[in-house]
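Technical note accompanying the year-one report. For the benefit of new consortium partners, we illustrate the data format agreed upon in the data management plan: each record pairs a sequence with a structure-token string. No post-processing was applied to the example shown here.
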Amino acid sequence: MKQFLDNIKNELTNRPVQSVIDVVLFAFLIYALFVFLKKNDSVRLFKYVVAFLAVSVVLTSRLLDFKLLSHVFEYAFLVVIVGVAALFPQETRRGLWKISSPRDMQQAFNTQYDCSDEELKAGIDDIVRASLNMAKKDVGALIVITPDYIPVHIKESGTKLDAVVSCGLLESIFNTKAPLHDGAVLVRGNRILAAGCFLPLTQSLEVDKVLGTRHRAAIGVTETNNVLTIIVSEETGVISVAHRGNLKRYYDAEMLTDTLQEFYGLKAIPHSTKRGKHNKRDHGRA
């Protein structure tokens, strides 16, 4: 032990700056690992990770001079990183996507849903399929995708459902003979929270005056809330998407799927996108 401490003292004496940076970087990596495990409710694993690293440091020290073990444990931290990535593949993937996405869109990767990524993707597929089916039949629809918070007065203005998203259920809700077809459907994760909800209309003068109430409501709710809205025009069957007060139109299945997966944090968000067209005219009712 004395020799081990002497080696540390010599390092600090001969290379003070490098030694301090070395210690700080190592401490930061340990802290980042702890934060990651805590965020994913796996703090109990941290003590095993620390113990593994401590044993690695001891076994690779020059004092013991274990040749074989030294070579094996030289990459101990890399083993830990690979192990964590294997245990938390979805969280690791989201973390990498978050790094490559614009800062103003990174909140998508921090949102936690009460379902798996596979269930989210299944819900997205149902939303896209329902939107396309209603577009072909010229059935009007307004779907609000909320990652977290939606004002209580909007949610309570409709009828509470709390049902799993499905293509058939969405088409049934927006059937022109259904009592809830005139309002908006609120969706969080893979569940429909409520249907028949009333949304605030946008007061922006830049919105095309030929756009109807449905489009104005879709834009209005995104101006004050972090939500994304999907609009199907009952007159033309055009599928549009509103987000942050901006309306983009003429979405197909691939574009809508990509947009929803990015909003849910299921894929990286490009720094620039040319999807859809802004505020094109949609003659007739919306």
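Partners are asked to follow this layout when depositing records. The longest strand covers residues 191-197.
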